[in-house]
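Query structure, 474 tokens:
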């Protein structure tokens, strides 16, 4: 029995390491996975098989080779509803960022948009329900988390009313994040006429191809004219304290104007993939939208079927073009070496780098991984603040001129494994408004001091080091 165990362990471990060598994309990640499969007999190879293999080379992630995933990129200029409002930048810094995003995720910057900031669960969902109440043609929404509770009941009640009025309602949800959307719960919505589908459904036949790749987007589109995106999920934790983290904080955007066309393109492509229905290319789903405001907005989307890691490239580009200041708010700041080094270079170059994260996380592993990066930033003069409440916001502001708000975290999961969406606002007024909100939490009372931070216990440092070992896998 003892001999069989070692033979099996050796065979499985060697098979895993050979696969890591052939399919690995980054040295740090390859080393982490190799050590994992050696240190954790059988469990390490199992975790690697489920979460580590680059399945883009396999059948599911050949989707970018198929018509249904390429159609929107290929017919970009043929789509109606907003091309007349594409903005051309004269500023080099803005043009460089906008060109990158247009080339890596095929979305143009649109002028003529009106933006409202939604800074609490009450604000966000009040605005979303108000817009949906006024819907006349369709409501499209997709969330990573649709969770049973008061908010989901309100959606069901409103949808029942709107379907009777003839409004088409389509709903996407991630099958892992929205794990309660099964059986009777999702049936409630389908019975009233809502077309509801899980994205990346976890089934026995496709488990290995979908488990590690989640749709993390949060999008609502009403009649093709009003859109919402940001960090809020449909969960009562944003409305009342249902855990020891209290009421979760976040930031969302209400968008009116031509750029809503971009959000609709993301939804329709995802919907066709999940629902296997016809592509919704009719004019009624892409109405011509006249300018209604002054803000230039560009949407960026990224996913495991993307040609490039667009969200990571966006964050790197914003850090690299900053000249005066970089303000980052994120609950899962585990950026990896390229982004971390870019921030260190910025700080050493005289750019004011500020990071705002929660003091406590909903994930202990993420918290220790995050804290393990702080020494490197504090040593070069970056400013780090730990807010006492839990903020789920994903924001980066540079030079008080350009701001990104969305679903993308500063971690490898958002960079490589999740379908994400951010909105970039090229607007000094909005950037300053969000930065002022950011700075309101950056007080001396919550600022980390390098000397004090170094005094944390040896156990804490050990746990951070252990978590850092797994951070390339998060």
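Result returned for the query:
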């Amino acid at each position: 029995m003892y001999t069989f165990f070692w033979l099996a362990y050796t065979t499985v471990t060697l098979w895993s390491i050979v696969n890591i060598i052939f399919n690995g994309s980054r040295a740090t990640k390859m080393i982490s996975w190799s050590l994992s499969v050696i240190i954790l007999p059988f469990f390490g190879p199992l975790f690697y098989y489920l979460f580590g293999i680059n399945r883009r080379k396999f059948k599911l992630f050949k989707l970018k080779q198929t018509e249904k995933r390429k159609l929107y990129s290929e017919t970009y200029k043929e789509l109606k509803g907003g091309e007349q409002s594409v903005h051309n930048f004269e500023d080099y810094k803005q043009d460089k960022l906008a060109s990158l995003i247009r080339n890596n995720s095929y979305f143009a910057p649109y002028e003529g948009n009106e933006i409202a900031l939604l800074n609490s669960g009450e604000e966000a969902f009040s605005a979303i329900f108000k817009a949906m109440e006024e819907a006349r043609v369709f409501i499209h929404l997709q969330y990573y988390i649709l969770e049973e509770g008061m908010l989901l009941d309100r959606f069901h009640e409103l949808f029942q009313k709107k379907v009777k009025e003839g409004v088409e309602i389509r709903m996407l949800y991630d099958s892992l994040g929205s794990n309660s959307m099964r059986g009777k719960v999702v049936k409630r919505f389908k019975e009233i006429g809502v077309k509801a589908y899980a994205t990346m459904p976890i089934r026995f036949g496709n488990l290995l191809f979908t488990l590690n790749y989640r749709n993390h987007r949060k999008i609502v589109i009403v009649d093709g004219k009003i859109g919402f995106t940001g960090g809020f999920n449909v969960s009562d934790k944003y409305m009342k304290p249902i855990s020891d983290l209290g009421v979760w904080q976040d930031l969302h955007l209400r968008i009116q104007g031509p750029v809503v066309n971009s959000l609709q393109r993301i939804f329709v492509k995802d919907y066709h993939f999940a629902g296997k229905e016809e592509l919704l290319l009719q004019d009624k789903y892409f109405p011509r939208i006249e300018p209604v405001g002054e803000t230039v907005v560009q949407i960026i989307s990224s996913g495991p079927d993307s040609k490039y890691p667009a969200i990571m490239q966006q964050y790197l580009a914003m850090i690299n073009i900053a000249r005066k200041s970089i303000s980052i708010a994120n609950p899962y700041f585990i950026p990896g070496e390229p982004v971390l080094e870019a921030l260190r270079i910025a700080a050493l170059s005289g750019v004011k780098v500020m990071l705002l994260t929660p003091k406590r996380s909903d994930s202990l592993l993420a918290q220790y991984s995050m804290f393990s990066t702080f020494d490197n930033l504090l040593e070069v003069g970056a400013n780090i603040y730990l807010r006492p409440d839990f903020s789920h916001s994903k924001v980066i502001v540079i030079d008080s001129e350009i701001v990104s708000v969305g679903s993308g975290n500063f971690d490898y999961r958002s960079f490589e494994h999740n379908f994400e969406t951010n909105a970039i606002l090229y607007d000094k007024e909005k950037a300053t408004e969000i930065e002022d909100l950011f700075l309101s939490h950056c007080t001396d009372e919550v600022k980390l001091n390098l000397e004090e931070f170094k005094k944390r216990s040896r156990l804490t440092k050990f746990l951070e080091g252990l978590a850092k070992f797994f951070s390339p896998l998060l």
